[in-house]
Each structure stands twice: as structure tokens, then as C-alpha cells.
Amino acid sequence: MAKAFLSVGSFATQDVITNILSRVSVTDGISVEEIQNQVEVALMAERYYTVAKAYMLYRQRHTEDREVRDKLQFLMEYCDASNAATGSKFDANANVENKNMATLIGELPKSNFIRLNRRMLTDRLKEIYGKELADKYIEMLNDHFIYKNDETSLANYCASITMYPWLIGGTISIGGNSKAPTNLKSFCGGFVNMVFIVSSMLSGACATPEFLMYMNYFIGQEYGTDYFKRA
């Protein structure tokens, strides 16, 4: 706190420090972050606005430094791990057999996505049920009393989609430029493009239950409806 005063060209006397700290309440089990939050409020209450801003920026820089240090530590541990599941800190994917640069890059933002997803969910819980229940939800998560799956991405996980919009309009509605299929060749090529586009918006698998039914139609158009008799 004294450094925050010095950073703005001021000096905090003992009386000033005492007045600020008189507004801070420290109890057993309180975290450093909670104390620092109280210091920010105390500085604002004592009308040291410039110092409060400097103190907040100081905390932010240290938070960023800690996050970078933690990520560097994770990089080292991931490289030393025997496999991708062991190296993963938040969400070990059993489908990933080998660790490489691609799997490492996928691991780095997971902690940020978890915080963002929890914030969005707790904001919604506060809106519907109130702050007490939202805080209880986070407490139960942290105590491992409950488990929330798929927190490491903003995208939906697996999905089963209908192919009908693509069948009549192509991929334009989902950001592509392919037109609706007109024959077996354009059906197969367009299908690959459509699944690729949709899968890029998902974290898991993309199922297309109608594929065989539609493919049967286009094969019949090209080889006759009794094509299966000559297979």
C-alpha cells in the first residue's frame, strides 16, 4: 500500500496508513485477495482515488505475472508427463493417446474457460435464485461435492443435427459457400464440407442420423432405385 502512494508521487504517513487499515477487517481463514479487496474499498472511502487506482493496477499486474508463471510451470510439467491424460491439469481426455504441440495448445486456455463458464452460470443463478444459491453452487464445486462437465470450452460438446437445411439450401446459412447438392458427387463433397463447418463449432462429435437415407436417394438417382441388387 505504501508503494502505491509512492507510485503516484505521494507519501503515506503512519496516521494515513492507520486510518486506512482501520477500515480493514481481518479474521481467521480470510484470504489475501479478500484483504486486498478491503484495502481497495478503504482507499476509495478515504478519498485516495489515484492511489486506489495505482493499487488496483499493481494487483492486476501481479495477477497476470502469477498466471504466466503458473502456465510456464504447467508447460514444463506437461512436457515431462508420460502421456496427455497425465499431463492434463483440468480435463484429461481419454480419446487423446499421445501428447504433442496441438494437445498442449488445447490445454492452455482451459482454466480461463472454466472461470468464464462458471461466471456466466453463477450470474444466471443469481438472476433466477439469488446470490446465496449461486455462492453455494461455487462452494460445492470447489469442495468436489458436485461435478460440472464440459466447463473447459464455450462450445457445445457432442450434437446430433438434421441435414435437411443443408439439403435444400447448402452451407450458406452456416458460413459456407456450397450450394444444395444436385447429384451423388456434390452430395458427398457437400456433406464433408457441412460436417467440417458444424464440427468446428463443437467440442465433441457431430452425428448425422439422416445421412444413409439421403445418400440412398442420390445413389438411386444416379444408378437406379434397384442399385443394391447389383452391388
TrEMBL record:
GO terms for cellular component: anaerobic ribonucleoside-triphosphate reductase complex. Transmembrane segments: none annotated. Coiled coil: none annotated. Keywords: ATP-binding, Nucleotide-binding. One of its GO terms (biological process) is 2'-deoxyribonucleotide biosynthetic process. GO terms for molecular function: ATP binding; ribonucleoside-diphosphate reductase activity, thioredoxin disulfide as acceptor; ribonucleoside-triphosphate reductase (thioredoxin) activity. The keyword Nucleus does not apply. The keyword GTP-binding does not apply. Residues 1-66 form the ATP-cone domain. InterPro entries: ATP-cone_dom (IPR005144), NrdD (IPR012833). This is Anaerobic ribonucleoside-triphosphate reductase. The lineage of its organism: unclassified sequences, metagenomes, organismal metagenomes.
